[in-house]
Amino acid sequence: MTVLVTGATGTLGRHVVERLRRAGQAVRALTRTPDEATGLPDDVEVVGGDLTEPHTLAAALHGVSALHLLGATGHDHAPLRTGPQIMAMAAEAGVRRLTVLSVGEGGELQEAVRDSGLEWTFIWPIDFMSNTLGWAEVIRGAAEVREPYAHRRTASVDEADVADVVATVLTRGGHAGRSLVVSGPEALTPADKVAAIAAATGREIRFTELTDDQARREWRAEGWPEEGIEFMLHMWATVPETVAAVTSAVEDVVGRPPRTFAQWVAAHADAFRP
């Protein structure tokens, strides 16, 4: 079986490729810039193509029996608008099994996937633990994280666990027609995560909660655009309770509990050290 992995050079995609190769699967990696696709295993076939331009995907889909598809594209994570065309091409190429990295329920892509006739599974990670790497620079320098809305809680998941779920579904099946919300084993606040980073690095690291106005002043000083500032404040002020919900998806699919944030930090501690 040849598996086509879209987003293969991204944070999750690299893990998916690794897991599939470990399982003995032939892997084809799709990227818009194949000449810049470094760090993938030598036996992975790298092909060019753009999900927003379906006519570029014919060669990539040829001979593929399983597909991992991104549900959003670009730096702004805009929902994929070419789902109907891609699904038609995948079915014609002989793809049988499909995982979709979902950005939520509803939308044109979800409808096209459900109508495709393929064996599909939506994978919806609540939040990647690797997003905390966005703190790495300030923690290395100032040993302090300063953010508003300290009470918000998320059941973040190790991206490697999500990759295990994707690879298992693609190679073994058994979860067709399901939307799997994938979480870690606990819901943590930003302060909880900072405390775990401090413990893993052996450093004293502070978390300081900002008011909205303090955040605005600091982010403006850092050069943030006004619309970006207001977007982040609104997003953090309205974090839904569902992102704190712990699910059993990793254990249901992979057969083991998901890794904790402390385990993830232990493996990435050097990123937070000066």
Automatic annotation (TrEMBL):
Q: What is the lineage of its organism?
A: Bacteria, Bacillati, Actinomycetota, Actinomycetes, Kitasatosporales
One Pfam family assigned to this protein is NAD_binding_10
Pinpoint the NAD(P)-binding domain residues: 7-103
Q: Which domain of life is it from?
A: Bacteria
Q: Which species is listed as the source?
A: Streptomyces antimicrobicus
PANTHER family in the record: PRESTALK A DIFFERENTIATION PROTEIN A (PTHR43162:SF1), PTHR43162
Name the UniProt record assigns to this protein: NAD(P)H-binding protein
